[in-house]
Amino acid sequence: MENVNSSTKSYPIPRIGEPAPQFKAITTQGDINFPSDYKGKWVILFSHPADFTPVCTSEFMTFASMEEEFKALNTELVGLSVDGLYSHIAWLRTIKEKIQYKGMKNIEVKFPLIEDITMEVANLYGMVQPGESNTKAVRAVFFIDPKGIIRTIIYYPLSLGRNFDEIKRVLIGLQTVDEFKVALPADWRPGDDVIVPTAGSCGQAKDRLEIPEEGVTCYDWFFCTKKLEKEKIEKA
């Protein structure tokens, strides 16, 4: 069989509901074995196109400034680009010592940033998309649950920075779905009504309409909502 260079090897793009692809890598915080090292925690694995670029800098400062918020949600951050370790270190030092943005300054990035000069991990996770670039990773975001399963994937192009309100909303939403066994409607925010799972039988649907469960509002057999207080979500 002909040898194929790792940087050009083709992988299927990971899908929601599948185990996160495994890899070992060098990072700014030491070696990691992913996702095994994060068992029992949620992980946001994200890629950026390149060190020493302005959009990526604004994103890393935002991720770092929100790190404690994510930790409070039992979530770890792991970054990646196709740059080398020394480039990562120099860039993160520059961010801390020189860059100010939206009131953020002296920002120290403490979460690991993966060295991926072979592009093997980026290709493994479908982060290199030729329509954007053959040499840079797009702005991918993978939400991985405590069992190592991919739960949500978001891709942004090179030129558009991520929406961090949405990233946090998605994380809290996934945790809410798991904890309370509900679904979430469009534009859901903690404290909004949630959707009760659809009735499993005609009889159950009829009963639900004629004798609604306490706290449940049914608009029709397939669309029922109930209150779920923000405080209850925060305590979960």
What value does the average pLDDT take?
A: 90
Distance between the termini: 52 Å
Strand content of the residues, in percent? 15-25%
What is the overall number of helices? 7
The largest sheet has its strands arranged as 5-4-3-6-7
Number of structurally distinct domains:
2
Relative helix content: 25-40%
Gyration radius, rounded: 21 Å
The CATH C-level name of the largest domain is: Alpha Beta
CATH topology of the largest domain: Glutaredoxin
What is the CATH superfamily label of the largest domain?
A: Glutaredoxin
Q: What's the count of strands?
A: 10
CATH architecture of the largest domain: 3-Layer(aba) Sandwich
Which class do the helix and strand fractions yield? Answer: alpha+beta
Global morphology: elongated
Model regions low in confidence, pLDDT < 50 over at least 5 residues: 1-7
Q: Largest sheet, if any?
A: 5 strands, mixed
Order of helices and strands: EEEHHEHEHEEHEHEEH
